[in-house]
């Protein structure tokens, strides 16, 4: 079984209610649910939340809410891995045989169904254990600066100071949308 798990905690400190805040006419979480459903990749799309209002919104957009997330993994210190492991354990105990799990963040309104499908295609290749969305840094990371203890700045990689930016290696970073795993 291939499962999408969308973590959506109710108690965000920085942006209260962010998972269901309106974003261009829809609750933020709606975009992740729709992309998951449209991708055709999943047997089940599950939202893991501790919040009944988020659960109601998730159900309106076609996600399942088979459990309420326990308080022990619903605070500021809970990790995404804690949430995914809880959901995977719950599914296994309920008789589900998991082949692939995809964590899709509720706050990823630009996640696309075709990119989820590309991630699944990647993770099903021999020797590949995980896949995730990534994007390029807009500027060369080799030119990154840091503030020193004295308040001045210095380069992280001073050996690249005199190299033309077009000659520096392009770097990517996690786009924070989804993660596929086995």
TrEMBL record:
Its EC number is 2.7.7.43. Keywords: Nucleotidyltransferase, Transferase. NCBIfam families: PseF (TIGR03584). It is an enzyme of class 2 (transferase). InterPro entries: CMP-NeuNAc_synthase, Cytidylyl_trans, Nucleotide-diphossugar_trans, PseF. This is Pseudaminic acid cytidylyltransferase. It comes from the Bacteria. Gene3D superfamilies: Spore Coat Polysaccharide Biosynthesis Protein SpsA, Chain A (3.90.550.10).
